Structure formats: structure tokens, C-alpha cells
Amino acid sequence: MSKINAAVAMVKVFEAWEVDHIYGIPGGSFNSTMDALYKERESVKYVQVRHEETGALAAAADAKLTGKVGAVFGSAGPGASHLINGLYDAQMDHVPVVALLGQVASTAMNYDSFQELNENPMFADVSIYNRTVMTPESLPHVVDEAIKAAYKHGGVAVVTIPVDFGFADIEDQEIATAKNHKTGVVVPAEEDLNAALPLIEAAERPVLYVGQGTRGGFEAIKAFAEHFSMPIAAAVLAKGIVPDTYENFLGFAARVATKPANEALAVADLIVFVGSDFPFAAYFFNPEAKFVQVDIDAMKFGRRHHTDVSILGDGTMALKRLTELGKARSADGWLKANQQNIKNWHDWRRSFYNDEQRPLRPEPVFKEINRIAEKDAVFVTDVGNTTISAIRHLEMNGDQLFTTSGWFATMGNGVPGGIAAQLTFPERQVFTLSGDGGFAMAMHDIITQVKYQLPIINVIFSNDSFGFIEAEQEDTEQKKFGVFLEGADFGKAGEALGADGFTITEYSQLEPAFEAAKNSKRPVVIDIKIKNERPLPVEELKLDPDKFSESEIAEFKEKYQVHGMPALSELLK
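The line above is the sequence of Pyruvate oxidase; the predicted C-alpha cells follow.
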């Protein structure tokens, strides 16, 4: 039988699984795999990042945006340990990622060798598969098993490779099992669907809440909502599934949220909870509401709210079938009040589109982003107040894509996610949206965008503060400490790194900068100096006259410039 280099055989496993790029930084303990990546460079592209964390966050973003496994590597010791943050992001958002770890030669292991690290224990918690390769012959097999495990469990698979094994020759035989890989959906049981119908029929204040499990299912969501006259709310990671300006879409719940969604969920008497594991339900959902939960994972039933009817199965299929089986609900005062509430919300936030205050508000910036965004644009937002602004002000059309670091909520994910998005969708327009805190953590990899000629539009909202945490310190009535940042000119920094750079300090500069960004063929960095003002705290609204005094409401409205937005309770009267 003919021979093949073990590392090349391993890379061919990636080829079989249609992994076309992998992120990382070379190291001595990874040289055998680097040699294989060079030999197979026409099929699996090596993407050089400037920090392994960038590579891991980008691999996670690949998986979030496509559903396909992301791939990253780190050399022994520090290269491997740098991956941890991005791998936890993948784990907590339940997406498939394979991480290859370099290791010293098998003959040097357990001799306290230079950069030798016992890597298995370090990655035990973050992974659903964690193996050290024991022979050259097993190297491609272990990687094939890792990819299967990542797909099966929606998580991180880690493979540690002693460097000498990758240089060895092994028998050339078919190893990859990609051609036999199957996926499918769980069909909901009719008896479970029928059990939900009486709750829907009896409800007076129903809300449909959707998560990532409904991706690609907007037509089913829309048909269900209109058949049963239900307003819709969504998880943040589900942004973009429902067009933001759809008349029945209330937005998002909790703190990274909108006023209409929080108000409706707080008083709903039925919540149909589909394809989500929203962790803040206990704080923002009416605890007395009846609850119908649809999920492909039975472990999630009852985790976030007492569940009256559980439906094991695909969310989109369940919504379609419930629409077919259930009696239509006529549009009533509940639906119309919620429709008016979301209309008022959009009118209010758009009222600041032309506000010329200095430093700027975020709304005029999003007016420009929405103006130049192409119909299939991809948005990657970093974590913090920028996330709040993005979910409120990006007017996505249903064909655009959005992602962020959801459960792990790690700062610095914007720039890496943009790299992933542009590599995966080279013909689509890509935006990254970051605060000055998050951008400073990842700005070194603007160089990567430049190196690979990725025309990403990187927008930075600079307010010289970790604003999201500053608001938390305000809420706990403690001294604001450690949250204020030294400012920098990120536009000039972007230019120094090889991108087109703009620094915006006034309203009149916005349109020219974004027009230039739209037409640029290079990475663009737009640093916008915004006022350090807290976004409207929809998690603690003081607008309901049944709960707050006239003076409390007036003070709240003045502080946050609220106008034309009565409470839902008033709209229901």
C-alpha cells in the first residue's frame, strides 16, 4: 500500500469535511502541520492572525454564520492557552469548532520540555471532545472523530498533536467519514402540538418568542403570528430572522432589548417559546404566563420558565403545523396595542437621526449604516452598549446576517467576527460594530484584514468608557471606578495599520465618511466620538402611570429624552 504523510492525511480529512480555511499562528510544535497546510494550500487556506484569540473567535463566528464547523490552531503552551476565550464563546453559543493544539515531540513529553503543557486538563471544561493523538497512524482518524463530535454536540472538539507524529509517513487509506454524515430534523409529535392548541385558543395576551432554532423560518413565523394574532419577540442571536420593521415584531427582551418586547412579555398570559434558551426569562417573562416550549433538546424544557406544554422537535416545523391545526384568532386590542407600541418605538428612535449634538448620539451613525448597507450585508457586533444600539437601530431586512458573542459575551469579538464573515462571504458587504473598549482588545487584527485585502467596514463608537459596566455600577449605587478609558484616535491607528481611516467628531462628517467606506476596496476604520450617555434602560422603565408618580415619569422622560412613547398599559386602555 502507498504511503502518505500523516499531517497531510489529516488535512485531507478537513478537505473532505469542506473546511476551506483555518486560523492560527505558527510555532515550533506545530511545524509538521504547517508543512502539510503548505502542501495542501490550494484546498485548505491558512489564515494568519496576529493573536490566537482572534483565530478562535473567528472560527466561532464562522460556525455561527454558516452552521459549518470552524477551525483554528495554536502551538504548544502559550499558543494553545490563547485559544481559550474564543473556544468558550463557541461552547456557550453551541456551535461546532475544531481546535488543533501543538505539542512537543512524543519523545520529549513528560520531560518538562520547553513550552510543554499538559493541555488536556486545561481544555476539559470547554470541550465536548478532547484527545491527545497517540500514534501517527491515528492522527487523521482522531481529527475525523473530532469533527463528527463537534457537529453532533454543537460544541468544541480539541485535538493535541505531538509534532513528530505529523512528520511520519503512514499507509494511505480513506479515513474521512464526511460522505456518510447525515443531519435531520426532529418531527414534532401531533399529540404535543394538539396539547398546545387549547392554551393558544384561551390566551388573551399571547406572545411568540423565537430564538436561533427558527433560523430560516420567517415565513412560518409570520404565518403563525398572523394566524393567531400574536406579536413576536426574539433572542438577540436571532436578530435578522424577522425583519426589524415587520409590524408585529417587538424586538428583544431583557437589557439588550427594546421597550415594546419587555412590556409585552411582562404581562403576557401565554408565551410560545421556540428554539431558544433565553437565560433572563425569570426576570422579564410574566411568571404566571402559560408556557409552550418547542426545542430539539429535551434538557431545555422547563429550564427558564415553568412549562405547561413541551414540544420536542424542529421549531419551524412546529410553527407550520400549529398554524395548520389551530383555529385563527382575530386581531384584537392586544395585537393592535403592541403594533402601536412598536410603531411609537421606531418613531422615537428615528427622531434622533438628524441630531447634531457634539459628541454625537449613536442614532445618526446607524442612519448612515442602514443607508449604505446592502440587501445581504453581514453585521458583527462587539459586546457592550454597542450591542444595545445595534439590536435597536440596525434595520435588518431578513436577508442580512447578524452575529455577536451571545452567552459568553466576550469583548473583542467584533474584528475577528468580521474577518470570518468576509472570508466566508467574499461577495457580501461586512460591517463590524465595536465600542472603543472592545475594539482596543482586537485592533491588532486590522492588519489581518489588510493582509488578506478584506474590505470590511469597522465602525467604532468611542465614548471613553466601558459604558455597559458603568451603567451597572450606577444601578448598584457604587462609586464609578475603573470604567473610564483613555481616548485614542482609532481612525489614525487604522491608517497606520494599512486601512482607510476616518475620525468623526461632528454630524456633517458622517455621510462623506460612510460614502467613502461604501466605495472602498480596502478595510475601513471609522472612529466616531459619541457622547457617554446611557442608552434608554428598557429593563427599568419608569413610564407606567399605574406604577410611578407623575414626577418620577417626568424625571425619567427628561433624563432619556423620551417623547411620544406611552406605556403599553396606556395603549391597552
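Note on the example: Residues 333-350 form the longest helix (18 residues). The longest strand covers residues 97-103.
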